[in-house]
Design goal:
single chain, about 15% strand, elongated
Amino acid sequence: MSTGGSSRAGYLLSAAAGAAATVLVHQVVAIGGATAQPAPAATEQAIAPPSPKPPAERPPTSPSKESPPRRAIGQLVTEKEKEISRLQEELRGLRAEAGYTQERIEALEGTPQPWPADIPAGFREKPLEANFQAVLEKHKLGDLVDMECDEFPCIAVVKASEADPQWQQKFQAALKEMSASPEYGGKVGLSMWSNDVQQDDQKTRYTAVSMAPPGTADGEDARTRSGHRARGMLSDATTPQQQRGAP
C-alpha cells in the first residue's frame, strides 16, 4: 500500500511541476512583447547529394533499317545479274538488227558523197546555178525549179517548157554547150532522171540532172546515191504543196 501511495504522490508531483513549467514558459514569452512566437522544434533533414545534370538532348535520328540477311542479298545480286545479262543480249540483238537495217538503207540509198577538194569552180553551186539559168533562158527550155548541193555532185531539177520527146535531146545539147566553158575543164559527166506528170489532158516533164568531172561520181555507191537524191527531188517537185503538208 505504501508503495502505491508513493507512486501516486510522485505522479501528482510531476504533474504539478509540469503545470508550473508551462506557466513559466508562457510568462517568459509574454514578457518579450507578445509578438515573438516560440521557435519550432528542430527537425532532422537529410542532405541529399546534388542531382546529376540531365544529358544534352540529341536530335532525333531516323531508325536505321536492318540490312537484309546475307542470303537475301545474294539472291538480289543474282537477280540483278540475270537482268543485266538479259538486257545486254537484247541490246546485241537490236544492234545487229540496226546494222542490218543500215546496210539495207545504204544498199538502196547509197552513202553521202563528200565534195572533192580540187573540184573545178564551175561545178560549185553558185556558178552552176547561174549557168543553168542562162542556158535555159537562151534556148527556151524551161525553168530551174530546184538545185541541191549539200552533197557531191549538185543536182538540178528543170521543168520542161514542152512535153515534146525531142526536148530531152535539146536539153542535152544545151548542157554540152555549157560544159565546153573553161570553168568545167572541157569534160563533164552527165546523169539524168525524168518524171512526167499528167494533169487532165496536159503532160509536164520534170528532169533532174547532175554534172561532175569524169571519174568523180562514176562509182556504184556514188551513182546509187545520186539516183536516190534525184528521185527525192523529183518527187518533191511533182507533188502538190497541199499534199506535202505545206501551209
